Each structure stands twice: as structure tokens, then as C-alpha cells.
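Researcher: We plan to redesign the surface later, but first we want a full-length starting point. C-alpha cells attached.
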């Protein structure tokens, strides 16, 4: 595909249902995001393992050439929502402006949704609140559904699509989710026809995922896509009979390619190599859970970057306090964008440490806090707290450190109906979403790329471009250019 500016991109394709649903058709999701003339060649290759082989096809057959001009733009949403990228700054950027996350880290198994074709529980933890089939229904969000939502099969999907409509209302702008958790806590999400066969993809289910992801983006919600849950870190290498900690399994390459081909056109998607990657000493004897090596993780990031024509950020998630082991060898790597930080405390200091290390290595990283406050309870439901203290202990320190945002995790809670895997109504944290949005919107008014963070004793300082913020305890003081300091309402600073 040749763009008006002269650049070229190879866009991976995938099989999907044909328009008449009687068979399969080959698709590629092209993004028309520049004014001018395009030249698009549709090529067909043949041979074994063509989807994952490293050398270009030698037997290419050009089956069509088309020219797409600027006058065609009125027939499409042109341009689509601008892509999230991460380049020279420590932030996700959209339209040249920092994109700060105040998102949902739960349910991480949001794709274990009863209305998706071919979705079933393969033996994960049991939660009484989810009923007999252990799949999400999200029925409380049926009231958020709209007539123009892209439902399927006579109204299926309405509740999940309604959930993202609710997010738009309260300002939730990202969703952490796992694309495969078959040996993990839920055991109920995979892109395949059979949950443990990584070579046969469910085209119907994946088309429904795509419809939901596109809808989420239109509601201003980024998809934070975790390729694996921690219990599956070496699933692909184990499945393909490879040595743990070495190599790049063909099934993994195919998985990455399929996900990027189907969802890489989305403007607002973040690729995550996996939950709690690289955990040494926490994997026991389970071969699927054994850690990948730093070398492997670098190769994985490089490969995803070659597939993703829009340059979406690629990050990885860590075990608390294991940041050095996971991230040190990725410093300076062009394909790797930053840290999806799991931490229970010291958010400000950890973010400052890694933004400074990455800048010194020549590749500034974005650092977001994704799973704060510990595994057991995380951010409790509104009904269980008098005040959303997480705003003071997590969100303010993260933003003051120059962090890219926070995704709130709901905790395990020992089968509670509002836990990470069992929560059905995202209104259970309505006050948390609204307060987080207020704080984010304040930071969005600042010249963030001109500001820097430092600690001065007990004080956290964030300043630049004539603006200065100081936080000590629960008190935040803000000084605007040519103004006097004033204390902010930390829950409603606008």
C-alpha cells in the first residue's frame, strides 16, 4: 500500500466470513488517513506457513490495483480517530497531544462474554455471581444500550456495547483485557475454536470482538490488549515442543499476526506482551507459566512492530518490585514503548525512576499504573468505602510523576460479586470513574511535555512551562504562570 507521502506499508490480511456467511473471504483492514492518492496492491502468496515465514513471498500474484483519491473520503469516516502512538515523549500521544489514561483494569476477562460465539469456561476459578456457565452477561448495562449500537444476531452484544456507552458518560477511556487466559484465573478467553489449539481461529468470534473494539474506540475508550495472562507466558513454546526461555514459537507468531491483522487498524489500541511477564521464582513446575527471557521479549516486541502499520505502543506488565529484571534489558529498544506497571506503593518514585532511565537510554518510555493496590481487594466498590482514597494515593502521584495514567483493578476478593473476574456492573465504582476523570481533565490543561518531576523530601514536585504542582500528604498546591499558589480540591480540581 503506497501512501500519498510516498511511504509504503505491508498490511497483513486474515480470513473472515464472507458477506453471505456461506464461506470465508480474505480481508485486510486498510487505514486511509492521509489526503491524496493511494496505490493499493492486493497480492496473493502461496506455499507453506506463508503467514509467519520471515522472507518475502517469491511467488506473489498481484490480483488487483486500485487508486483511492481524496474525493473518496466523504464515503468513509475520514480520517478515522487519530492513532495512539508513543514516540519522542514519555506519553501516549494522539493528534500531537498527550493521552492520559483513567481506565478500567477489570474485568480483565471482559471477553468471556456470553454473547460471543464459541465462548465457554474451560475450567478457571468459579464465581457464584456468574451463574452456571461462568460467563459475563453484563445485564445491568442493557439500560445503556443505544439503538445504533453494532449488535449482531438479532440484538446480541447489547449489554457489552452498552457498557462502553456508560464509559463514555463517566470518562473511562481505556479497558485492560486479556486475549487469552486458558490456563489462568478465568480459563474462559481465547481467540480459537478450541481453547488449547492455537492454529485454528474462530472467525465469527473474532469478528464480534472487532465490532466491540471499534465501538469502544468510537466511545473514546482505548483497548489495552494483553496477549497472555501470566499463567500462559510460555504457552506457545510449550505447545510447540520448544525449550522454555528460548526461541519464538510458530503458534505465537501466528497469534500475534492474527491479532494485529484484525485489530491493528484500530486507532486506540495498546499492545501488551502479557500480564506479569518474566516472573522468576513464581512459576512452579507448570511449563505454561515459565517466564520468557529478555531476549525473547525483545524479539516479540520487534515482530509486533513490523506487523503494526500504525505504530501503536508496545508495553509489558510486571510482577510487583520485579521491574529491574523485566525492563532493564529492553531499555533503548526502538520497538518497545514503556511500562505497564503493577505496584502496590511508591508509584511516584517508580515512575520517575523509569522515565529517567529510559530517557537516558535514548528511548523515552511511557509508564502507566495498571493494577495498583494489591491483588486481594484493589479498588473496592463505592458501597464499601466512604471516600475514594485511591485518587490521593495512586492517581495524583502517578500524574505528578509524569505518568501516562492508571487502570483500576478490582482485586480477587475471594468470590465476591464485585471482584476482578466476577463484576457485572461497572457502576459499582461510579464515584471512582468520575473522580478519576476530574483529575485527568485537570492535568490535560497543563503543558505536560514541558514539565518534569522530582522529589523534594516528602514533597512531590511537577513543574515546567510556568506551572508548578506540589503534593505533601493529601494537600496539592498549584501555581499557574504569573499567579499565586492555591490549594486544589484533589477530588474535583477543575
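Model: Full-length starting sequence:
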Amino acid at each position: 500500500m503506497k501512501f500519498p507521502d510516498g511511504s509504503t506499508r505491508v498490511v497483513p490480511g486474515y480470513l473472515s466470513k464472507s458477506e453471505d456467511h456461506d464461506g470465508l473471504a480474505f480481508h485486510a483492514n486498510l487505514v486511509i488517513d492521509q489526503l491524496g492518492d493511494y496505490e493499493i496492491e492486493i497480492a496473493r502468496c502461496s506455499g507453506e506457513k506463508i503467514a509467519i515465514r520471515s522472507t518475502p513471498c517469491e511467488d506473489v500474484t498481484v490480483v488487483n490495483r486500485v487508486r483511492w483519491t481524496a474525493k473518496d473520503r466523504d464515503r468513509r469516516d475520514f480520517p478515522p480517530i487519530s492513532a495512539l502512538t508513543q514516540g519522542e515523549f514519555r506519553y501516549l500521544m494522539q493528534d500531537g497531544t498527550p493521552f492520559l489514561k483513567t481506565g478500567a483494569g477489570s474485568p480483565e476477562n471482559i471477553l468471556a462474554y456470553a454473547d460471543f460465539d464459541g465462548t465457554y469456561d474451560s475450567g478457571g476459578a468459579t464465581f457464584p455471581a456468574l451463574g452456571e456457565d461462568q460467563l459475563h452477561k453484563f445485564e445491568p448495562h442493557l439500560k445503556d444500550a443505544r439503538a445504533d449500537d453494532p449488535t449482531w444476531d438479532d440484538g446480541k452484544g447489547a449489554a457489552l456495547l452498552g457498557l462502553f456507552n456508560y464509559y463514555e458518560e463517566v470518562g473511562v477511556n481505556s479497558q485492560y483485557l486479556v486475549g487469552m487466559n486458558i490456563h489462568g484465573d478465568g480459563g474462559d478467553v481465547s481467540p480459537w475454536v478450541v481453547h488449547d489449539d492455537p492454529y485454528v481461529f474462530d472467525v465469527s468470534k473474532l469478528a464480534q470482538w472487532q465490532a466491540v473494539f471499534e465501538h469502544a474506540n468510537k466511545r473514546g475508550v482505548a483497548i489495552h490488549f494483553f496477549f497472555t495472562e501470566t499463567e500462559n507466558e510460555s504457552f506457545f513454546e510449550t505447545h510447540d515442543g520448544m525449550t522454555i526461555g528460548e526461541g519464538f514459537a510458530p503458534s505465537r507468531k501466528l497469534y500475534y499476526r492474527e491479532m494485529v491483522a484484525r485489530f491493528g487498524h484500530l486507532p486506540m489500541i495498546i499492545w501488551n506482551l502479557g500480564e506479569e511477564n518474566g516472573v522468576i521464582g513464581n512459576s512452579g513446575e507448570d511449563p505454561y507459566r515459565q517466564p520468557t527471557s529478555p531476549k525473547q521479549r525483545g524479539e516479540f516486541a520487534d515482530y509486533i512492530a513490523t506487523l503494526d502499520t500504525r505504530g501503536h505502543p508496545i508495553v509489558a506488565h510486571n510482577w510487583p518490585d520485579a521491574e529491574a529484571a523485566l525492563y532493564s534489558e529492553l531499555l533503548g529498544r526502538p520497538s518497545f514503548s514503556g511500562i505497564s506497571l503493577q505496584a502496590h506503593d511508591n508509584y511516584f518514585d517508580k515512575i520517575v525512576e523509569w522515565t529517567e532511565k529510559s530517557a537516558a537510554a535514548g528511548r523515552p518510555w511511557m509508564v502507566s499504573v495498571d493494577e495498583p493496590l494489591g491483588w486481594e481487594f484493589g479498588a473496592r466498590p463505592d458501597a464499601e468505602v466512604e471516600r475514594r482514597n485511591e485518587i490521593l494515593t495512586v492517581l495524583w502521584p502517578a500524574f505528578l510523576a509524569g505518568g501516562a495514567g492508571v487502570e483500576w483493578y478490582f482485586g480477587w476478593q475471594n468470590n465476591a460479586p464485585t471482584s476482578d473476574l466476577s463484576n457485572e456492573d461497572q457502576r459499582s465504582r461510579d464515584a471512582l470513574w468520575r473522580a478519576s476523570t476530574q483529575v485527568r481533565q485537570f492535568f490535560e490543561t497543563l503543558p505536560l511535555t514541558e514539565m518534569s518531576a522530582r522529589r523534594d523530601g516528602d514533597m512531590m514536585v511537577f513543574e515546567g512551562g510556568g506551572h508548578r504542582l506540589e503534593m505533601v500528604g493529601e494537600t496539592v498546591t498549584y501555581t499557574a504562570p504569573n499567579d499565586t499558589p492555591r490549594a486544589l480540591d484533589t477530588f474535583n480540581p477543575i
